[in-house]
Fold this sequence. Notes:
The protein has 2 domains: 89 residues, no CATH class; 91 residues, no CATH class. It has a 4-stranded mixed sheet. The chain has a two-stranded antiparallel sheet with strand order 3-4. Strands 5-6 form a two-stranded antiparallel ribbon. A hairpin with a 2-residue loop joins strand 1 and strand 2. 39% of the residues lie in helices and 14% in strands. By secondary structure, the chain is α+β, with helices and mostly antiparallel strands.
Amino acid sequence: xDYPSIxxxxxxxxSAEILTEYFACDYEACKGACCVAGDSGAPLEECEPEALEKxxxxxxxxxxxxxxxxxxxxxxxxxxSDGDLVTPLVPGSEECIYSNFDKDGNCFCTVERRWMAGCGxxxxxxxxxxxxxxxxxxxxxxxxxxxxxxxxxxxxxxKGRREGIRVYEFLKEPLTxxxxxxxxxxxxxxxxxxxxx
Length: 197
Protein backbone atom coordinates (compact mmCIF):
# COMPACT_ATOMS: atom_id res chain seq x y z
CA UNK A 1 0.00 0.00 0.00
CA ASP A 2 1.58 3.28 -1.15
CA TYR A 3 -0.93 5.62 0.52
CA PRO A 4 -1.73 6.44 4.16
CA SER A 5 -4.23 4.18 5.92
CA ILE A 6 -5.81 7.21 7.66
CA UNK A 7 -6.65 10.54 6.03
CA UNK A 8 -7.60 13.57 8.12
CA UNK A 9 -10.32 15.90 6.86
CA UNK A 10 -11.19 18.67 9.29
CA UNK A 11 -11.91 16.92 12.62
CA UNK A 12 -12.39 13.48 11.03
CA UNK A 13 -9.88 10.67 10.72
CA UNK A 14 -11.07 8.72 7.70
CA SER A 15 -10.00 5.15 7.03
CA ALA A 16 -8.62 4.90 3.49
CA GLU A 17 -10.73 1.77 3.03
CA ILE A 18 -13.77 4.03 2.69
CA LEU A 19 -12.13 5.45 -0.44
CA THR A 20 -10.71 2.23 -1.87
CA GLU A 21 -13.13 -0.58 -0.96
CA TYR A 22 -16.24 -1.33 -3.00
CA PHE A 23 -19.80 -1.52 -1.64
CA ALA A 24 -23.38 -1.35 -2.88
CA CYS A 25 -26.33 -2.73 -0.91
CA ASP A 26 -27.74 -5.87 -2.53
CA TYR A 27 -31.23 -5.90 -1.05
CA GLU A 28 -32.36 -8.67 -3.39
CA ALA A 29 -29.75 -10.94 -1.82
CA CYS A 30 -29.86 -9.93 1.87
CA LYS A 31 -33.56 -8.93 2.12
CA GLY A 32 -32.77 -6.34 4.80
CA ALA A 33 -31.00 -8.70 7.19
CA CYS A 34 -29.12 -5.83 8.87
CA CYS A 35 -32.38 -4.77 10.55
CA VAL A 36 -32.91 -8.14 12.21
CA ALA A 37 -29.40 -9.29 13.10
CA GLY A 38 -26.90 -8.22 15.72
CA ASP A 39 -26.28 -8.08 19.45
CA SER A 40 -27.99 -4.73 19.92
CA GLY A 41 -29.97 -2.15 17.99
CA ALA A 42 -28.71 0.54 15.64
CA PRO A 43 -26.56 3.25 17.26
CA LEU A 44 -28.43 6.52 17.78
CA GLU A 45 -27.37 10.13 17.97
CA GLU A 46 -28.49 11.95 21.12
CA CYS A 47 -31.18 13.86 19.20
CA GLU A 48 -32.64 10.86 17.37
CA PRO A 49 -34.93 9.35 20.05
CA GLU A 50 -36.81 12.65 20.09
CA ALA A 51 -37.14 12.54 16.28
CA LEU A 52 -38.41 8.95 16.45
CA GLU A 53 -40.99 9.92 19.05
CA LYS A 54 -42.08 12.99 17.10
CA UNK A 55 -42.71 10.91 13.96
CA UNK A 56 -44.22 7.89 15.72
CA UNK A 57 -47.75 8.55 14.49
CA UNK A 58 -46.50 8.52 10.88
CA UNK A 59 -44.70 5.16 10.88
CA UNK A 60 -46.42 3.25 13.70
CA UNK A 61 -49.11 1.69 11.46
CA UNK A 62 -46.36 -0.17 9.58
CA UNK A 63 -44.67 -1.55 12.70
CA UNK A 64 -45.13 -5.06 14.02
CA UNK A 65 -47.52 -5.40 16.95
CA UNK A 66 -44.64 -6.16 19.33
CA UNK A 67 -42.54 -3.26 18.08
CA UNK A 68 -45.45 -0.84 18.27
CA UNK A 69 -46.23 -1.90 21.84
CA UNK A 70 -42.68 -1.11 22.95
CA UNK A 71 -42.66 2.33 21.34
CA UNK A 72 -46.22 3.06 22.52
CA UNK A 73 -44.96 2.56 26.07
CA UNK A 74 -42.47 5.39 25.47
CA UNK A 75 -39.36 3.31 24.76
CA UNK A 76 -37.88 4.79 21.59
CA UNK A 77 -34.26 4.09 22.57
CA UNK A 78 -32.32 2.01 25.08
CA UNK A 79 -28.76 1.85 26.39
CA UNK A 80 -27.01 -1.39 25.45
CA SER A 81 -24.44 -3.39 27.42
CA ASP A 82 -21.63 -1.20 26.05
CA GLY A 83 -23.33 1.95 27.30
CA ASP A 84 -24.34 3.08 23.82
CA LEU A 85 -27.70 4.59 22.89
CA VAL A 86 -29.39 2.25 20.39
CA THR A 87 -32.77 1.33 18.94
CA PRO A 88 -34.69 -1.22 21.04
CA LEU A 89 -35.01 -4.83 19.91
CA VAL A 90 -38.14 -6.96 19.97
CA PRO A 91 -37.78 -9.17 23.10
CA GLY A 92 -36.44 -12.64 22.36
CA SER A 93 -35.12 -11.64 18.95
CA GLU A 94 -32.48 -9.53 17.20
CA GLU A 95 -35.16 -7.56 15.35
CA CYS A 96 -35.18 -3.77 15.57
CA ILE A 97 -38.59 -2.56 16.73
CA TYR A 98 -38.73 -0.14 13.79
CA SER A 99 -38.45 -2.94 11.22
CA ASN A 100 -41.17 -5.12 9.75
CA PHE A 101 -41.68 -7.54 6.87
CA ASP A 102 -43.63 -7.40 3.64
CA LYS A 103 -45.69 -10.32 2.32
CA ASP A 104 -42.59 -11.76 0.59
CA GLY A 105 -40.55 -11.84 3.79
CA ASN A 106 -38.40 -8.82 2.93
CA CYS A 107 -37.46 -6.69 5.92
CA PHE A 108 -37.90 -2.93 5.71
CA CYS A 109 -37.50 0.11 7.94
CA THR A 110 -40.95 1.47 8.79
CA VAL A 111 -39.54 4.93 9.52
CA GLU A 112 -37.79 5.23 6.17
CA ARG A 113 -40.69 3.77 4.22
CA ARG A 114 -43.02 6.47 5.52
CA TRP A 115 -40.39 9.17 4.95
CA MET A 116 -40.03 8.04 1.34
CA ALA A 117 -43.80 8.34 0.99
CA GLY A 118 -43.51 12.00 2.02
CA CYS A 119 -44.67 11.47 5.61
CA GLY A 120 -42.63 12.72 8.56
CA UNK A 121 -39.38 14.67 8.72
CA UNK A 122 -36.98 11.96 9.93
CA UNK A 123 -35.58 9.44 7.45
CA UNK A 124 -33.87 6.92 9.75
CA UNK A 125 -30.96 6.78 12.23
CA UNK A 126 -27.84 8.20 10.62
CA UNK A 127 -25.88 5.08 11.64
CA UNK A 128 -28.17 3.03 9.38
CA UNK A 129 -27.95 5.55 6.55
CA UNK A 130 -24.13 5.69 6.71
CA UNK A 131 -23.59 1.94 6.91
CA UNK A 132 -21.02 0.36 6.35
CA UNK A 133 -19.25 3.44 7.72
CA UNK A 134 -19.22 3.70 11.49
CA UNK A 135 -18.54 7.04 13.17
CA UNK A 136 -17.00 7.13 16.62
CA UNK A 137 -15.86 9.97 18.88
CA UNK A 138 -12.26 9.98 20.05
CA UNK A 139 -11.02 11.36 23.34
CA UNK A 140 -9.05 14.04 21.49
CA UNK A 141 -12.24 15.63 20.18
CA UNK A 142 -11.73 14.06 16.77
CA UNK A 143 -14.13 11.68 15.05
CA UNK A 144 -13.11 8.43 13.38
CA UNK A 145 -14.80 7.07 10.26
CA UNK A 146 -14.11 3.38 9.82
CA UNK A 147 -15.35 0.68 7.48
CA UNK A 148 -17.38 -2.01 9.25
CA UNK A 149 -17.36 -5.50 7.79
CA UNK A 150 -20.29 -7.78 8.53
CA UNK A 151 -20.72 -11.24 7.06
CA UNK A 152 -24.36 -10.61 6.14
CA UNK A 153 -23.17 -7.72 3.94
CA UNK A 154 -20.68 -9.81 1.99
CA UNK A 155 -23.03 -9.65 -1.01
CA UNK A 156 -22.89 -5.83 -0.88
CA UNK A 157 -19.10 -5.79 -1.09
CA UNK A 158 -19.31 -8.21 -4.02
CA LYS A 159 -21.96 -6.13 -5.80
CA GLY A 160 -19.96 -2.95 -5.30
CA ARG A 161 -16.91 -4.63 -6.81
CA ARG A 162 -18.92 -5.91 -9.79
CA GLU A 163 -20.43 -2.48 -10.45
CA GLY A 164 -17.32 -0.43 -9.63
CA ILE A 165 -18.97 1.53 -6.80
CA ARG A 166 -16.73 2.49 -3.92
CA VAL A 167 -17.99 2.95 -0.37
CA TYR A 168 -17.80 6.75 -0.37
CA GLU A 169 -19.58 6.90 -3.75
CA PHE A 170 -22.41 4.66 -2.57
CA LEU A 171 -22.80 6.87 0.52
CA LYS A 172 -22.59 10.23 -1.24
CA GLU A 173 -26.02 11.41 -0.09
CA PRO A 174 -25.70 10.62 3.64
CA LEU A 175 -22.03 11.66 3.82
CA THR A 176 -22.91 15.00 2.23
CA UNK A 177 -25.96 15.46 4.44
CA UNK A 178 -24.11 14.55 7.65
CA UNK A 179 -20.68 16.14 7.05
CA UNK A 180 -21.33 18.73 4.31
CA UNK A 181 -20.52 19.22 0.64
CA UNK A 182 -17.00 20.50 1.29
CA UNK A 183 -16.19 17.36 3.29
CA UNK A 184 -17.45 15.12 0.48
CA UNK A 185 -15.42 17.09 -2.08
CA UNK A 186 -12.34 16.44 0.07
CA UNK A 187 -13.16 12.73 0.06
CA UNK A 188 -13.39 12.77 -3.73
CA UNK A 189 -10.06 14.61 -4.02
CA UNK A 190 -8.38 12.15 -1.63
CA UNK A 191 -9.77 9.19 -3.57
CA UNK A 192 -8.53 10.66 -6.85
CA UNK A 193 -5.11 11.16 -5.32
CA UNK A 194 -4.97 7.54 -4.17
CA UNK A 195 -5.90 6.30 -7.64
CA UNK A 196 -2.93 8.20 -9.12
CA UNK A 197 -0.44 6.45 -6.84
